[in-house]
Amino acid sequence: MFQIVGLIAAISAIVTMSRRRGTDIVLWGGLALCGFLILEYGGAAFLHLRGLDDDLVFAAVAGWLWIGAIFLYVRFGIGASKPKSWGMWTCGECKYLKAANAIVCEACGKPFVPRVGKSSSTLGV
Ligand SMILES: [Zn+2]
User: Fold this and answer.
1) Which of 14, 100, 102, 115 has the CA that lies 20 to 30 A from 71?
2) CA of 7 to the centre of ligand 1 (A)
3) Contacts of 72 by beta carbon, 8 Å cutoff, 6+ apart
4) What is the count of structural domains for the chain?
């Protein structure tokens, strides 16, 4: 039971983070879920067939490590080269307040625009 609740929480965290990073939420959420199921259940079946029932915990650990790795990649890998905010920021389009780790607006899909660059280009004209 805890496993299912934890899995739902972890997948929704990855989906939320994917949306903030402006990447494909179905791809990353699905990749995390499929990888987890393959490692956890495929790994457990493999260990069971080999008669290694004492090591079944490693299949679950591998599944959770996979989820953790996906989350960290989406959080820190994707969009690492894109402009990002150092704190909470407001979307210029819909005025919705965004978290610091968001690089696109979840509401309208507009990417984060550094305020300094925007005002200096206006002054240059
Ligand atoms: Zn917006």
Assistant:
1) 115
2) 29
3) none
4) 2
Domain that holds residue 73: 1-81
Looking at the structure, do residues 108 and 60 belong to the same domain, yes or no?
Answer: no
Sorted by sequence, the CB contacts under 8 Å of residue 62 that are 6+ apart come out as 39, 40, 43
Shared domain for 90 and 72, answered yes or no, is no
Tell me if 40 sits within 8 A of 60, measured CB to CB: yes
pLDDT mean by block of 10 residues, the chain; 125 residues: 90 96 95 96 95 93 97 94 89 90 90 66 44
What pLDDT was estimated at residue 86? 86
Q: Do 87 and 49 belong together in one domain? A: no
Separation of 6 CA from ligand 1 center, angstroms? 30
CA-CA-CA-CA torsion sign (21, 23, 28, 29): positive
Between the CA of 40 and the centroid of ligand 1 the distance, in Å, is 38
Rounded to 5 degrees, φ, ψ at 79 are 75, 15
